[in-house]
Design brief:
The complex is a heterodimer.
Chain A: E1 3-7, H1 17-27, E2 37-42, E3 47-52, H2 60-64, E4 70-72, E5 79-81, H3 91-95, E6 102-104, E7 109-111, H4 121-125, E8 131-135, H5 138-158
Antiparallel strand pairs in A: 1-8, 2-3, 4-5, 6-7
Chain B: E1 2-5, E2 8-11, H1 18-24, E3 48-52, E4 58-62, E5 73-75, H2 79-95, H3 100-109, H4 129-137, E6 143-145, E7 152-154, H5 169-173, E8 181-184, E9 187-190, E10 193-199, E11 206-209, H6 210-220, H7 229-244
Parallel strand pairs in B: 1-5
Antiparallel strand pairs in B: 1-2, 3-4, 3-5, 6-7, 8-9, 9-10, 10-11
Helix pairs in contact in B: 2-3
Classes of the chains: A alpha+beta, B alpha+beta.
């Protein structure tokens, strides 16, 4: 398994540097509306959460794409959009559980995090270290998953 | 395998069409009915190229449907091809008087449209990209109906189709803006069918039709709360906030 973009919202300061970095590197513009990462802020509580593609496996966006325009890049593990064959039906936006698939109105394109081809720029610019790009050891990964599944069960019971 | 395109040797894979090879090699061939998401249709004939045999005889083929063969000699532009393309544009511009896209194209090619009566607001050029998009979406609602000069793209019996999910993929792929879609008062009207848009529970934005959401749920097996994209991440963040605080 490759590296993952790890988000720690409790460390996020809400500076939105990641949004600007992302839009500048992908479009040449400092425009948060064209960014592939979006910070949700709760100013009163001082809580911020950078919403970004979690590169799900299996990925709902890929499951609903009628043209096969969304596919996983085998080397980086990122779900990438092939703009050539995308017909902009926007099913992926409806299907994304995290609301992390965006539509760039100016370019008329579906945009989502592509991990910058395996070296995410937002991570380098993040001052609060809320974003990090770390590798996941397969042995630890499966244990993490099992532990997370238990927590999920407990939470569901509580709810 | 090797091909010769405009005197240049180019490699190609079996099963590819001439147009696909040219696109990859950055050799320009104009197209109207081609979209990389679908197979070549051979409808508009704008992509005509000439094939040359050993004796130097040439014949014209539609590059979007012609599969590559070993040693094929292809000419992508000649006086004859230019004439064919100009004729096509002239005829389409005479038909689609209402389409700015086609009229601009006629200006670029320097052709005068013919004066045909009764076609003042026509925009459709019958390229069938919408038909392909609808098929791929799994609805297969659109098709060419009637024949001859009455031919047009529509739903069965030109009525609201049961299978239509109002995704507007047809509207998005249409190159000439011929498909009409209206969104007002929480409703989307397309192809004579009225869809109730689902409103985001948080901000009230109309973000999808009920049918679209049902299709997503069927394909993914996940049922999401009725929230628009932005509010979905906000909802998630709100839950994380309670968890960490």
């Amino acid at each position: 398994m490759g590296k993952i973009l790890y988000v720690q919202p409790e460390k996020c300061t809400g500076c939105r540097t990641c949004e600007l970095t992302c839009s500048f590197l992908h479009t040449g513009e400092f425009n948060p509306l064209r960014s592939r990462i979006s910070v949700v802020s709760f100013e009163k509580e001082g809580f911020f959460y950078p919403a970004v593609c979690q590169q799900c496996s299996p990925a709902p966006c890929m499951m609903v794409c009628p043209t096969g325009a969304i596919s996983r890049n085998a080397s980086t593990g990122a779900m990438e959009v092939n703009h050539e064959i995308c017909i902009r039906c926007k099913m992926c936006m409806i299907a994304c559980p995290f609301g992390a698939t965006f539509y760039d109105e100016r370019a008329n394109q579906i945009i989502k995090c592509d991990l910058c081809g395996g070296d995410p720029a937002c991570v380098k610019m993040c001052r609060g270290e809320a974003l990090s790009f770390s590798s996941l050891n397969p042995a630890v990964g499966s244990k993490k998953r099992a532990a997370a599944a238990k927590i999920k069960e407990v939470l569901e019971e509580v709810r | 395998m090797k091909l010769i395109i405009d005197g240049r040797e180019v490699s190609a894979y079996p099963g590819e069409t001439i147009l696909e090879v040219c696109r990859r090699e950055n050799i320009f061939i104009p197209t109207l009915c081609y979209h990389p998401a679908f197979k070549g249709q051979g409808v508009c004939r704008m992509c005509m190229v000439e094939l040359e045999d050993e004796n130097g005889n040439r014949r014209m083929v539609a590059s979007c449907t012609y599969p590559v063969q070993e040693g094929l000699k292809i000419v992508t532009f000649s006086a004859k091809i230019d004439k064919v393309r100009k004729n096509i544009i002239r005829l389409l511009a005479s038909r689609a008087k209402g389409s700015d896209y086609i009229q601009d194209l006629a200006g670029q090619y320097g052709v005068e449209p013919l004066d045909l009566p009764g076609l003042d607001n026509e925009k459709c050029i019958l390229c069938r990209l919408c038909v392909n998009a609808c098929k791929l979406m799994g609805s297969s609602v659109l098709a060419a109906v009637w024949r001859g000069i009455d031919k047009k793209i529509s739903t069965p019996y030109e009525e609201a189709a049961e299978e239509c999910i109002g995704c507007a993929a047809c509207y998005e792929v249409c190159p000439t803006g011929a498909i009409e879609m209206k969104e007002e008062n929480g409703q989307r009207i397309i192809w004579n069918k009225v869809f109730n848009l689902v409103l985001c529970q948080h901000c009230g934005k109309a973000y999808a039709t009920e049918e679209q959401i049902a299709l997503v749920e069927r394909k993914t097996g996940i049922s999401l709360p009725a929230l628009c994209e932005a509010c979905r991440s906000q909802n998630l963040a709100g839950r994380l906030k309670n968890f960490s605080g």
